[in-house]
């Protein structure tokens, strides 16, 4: 990258800073889980060294530094404005295990340092070829023995179509200087094309409409940096992997397990895919062809690491599993064959017919939000009234069958599997507490980062409860009475007109519901021992 290209990128991100968010699937806890599933003993996230390339204002890295206080975090970026914003928050929170530095990817040179987790989200496709090569080089030179690198990037074939739209938007927007005007103009052009092109070519119209839907609700900064930025260089997955291999890196997996499972295709399609695919790289590439994939979040490790691609019970040993699915009223006993629909809080239904899985899942769901160790499942099943696991000689076979079915459920995001449990309260503590980051984010925007590294949109009740969390029960009651009287909080479930007519019992009930909601959203810290 030439000096002028670097300055141009720096300038664009200073002019229209990127909204910097947490990405759940980049958290070292999750990366370590994925590595273990594929047979690699990743470094302990709780005592690790983490690097983020292009960290912007630290929206991803700062919450990690809070949940992993004994780990060390380094982020670097080219935009001084974004870094200053991040540093302000770090100072305010008094964090000492994180550094944000101003550095160009091309100039990053730390031969003496190693990192267990390297994260590069939303950067790779948007920098010139030289910087992309340098990202691989940084991974090659600084990744620890069993370390993992996460890189996200735009892919073909999906970006052939999206790239066409991008070029039209760039053509139009370059007539204007100010980034915000460019974004407004790009949106206007897309609207115009969508309306005007509809008469001529229905297929083309469908394509434009889809793009319009994608950008319509996104922030200006997203549209600008995704579509109007000078560099946006998608590639096929196999091309990405050719370059990664040259840099001594090996494909581990995608960070989202469900993306690796071709479950939405028919058995015939899955069979053909298997025949076509001589190895994992081919298999993934053909999947991209089928899915018209536009984006990947790939995990890489050192080339010489041994991996295990036949997934089974061995990979799940020691793993913690939980699920918020609800066990329905039983029409037939769990140990008999027959469909049973477990429902998720979002209203999805998982229909299970295997007695072994029904009993296993029932044991998991009954413990929620506590995690169950995979190794403890046969014991929990055996303790049920009419256990499906009776024959100890068959135990290994049962373990394998259960593991394979649980992995399928994980692939549909119906259960959670982790190598270490989320660092959150499992029941409402006597003295509930949240993180200083959540208290700060709650005053500055619509979203906060919870203890599972997810973005959570708060309602008014959540906000007020978090603000008075450090008070005792009487103090919280008083706080709510005042807010309701001042009409700062409208409590729709109670008929409150004018003055607060709620008695202490009703207020306690309201607060207790609210605390349960904070617990379910992973916003409460575990009780101090
Ligand atoms: C699209 S943003 C993504 C930010 C963040 N990783 C995220 O996903 O929220 C790209 C970031 O990469 C930074 N960047 C671009 N080119 C860079 C370079 N050559 N060296 C360091 N940072 C760079 C930009 O300043 C910007 O903060």
TrEMBL record:
Q: Name one GO biological process term.
A: methylation
Per UniProt, residues of the PKMT C-terminal winged helix domain are 432-523
One annotated GO molecular function: methyltransferase activity
Asked whether the UniProt record includes Transferase among its keywords, one would answer: yes
UniProt cross-references to SUPFAM superfamilies, sorted A to Z: S-adenosyl-L-methionine-dependent methyltransferases
Methyltransferase regulatory domain mapped to chain residues: 220-302
Protein name according to UniProt:
tRNA (Guanine-N(7)-)-methyltransferase
Q: Which organism is it from?
A: Rubinisphaera italica
**Organismal lineage:** Bacteria, Pseudomonadati, Planctomycetota, Planctomycetia, Planctomycetales
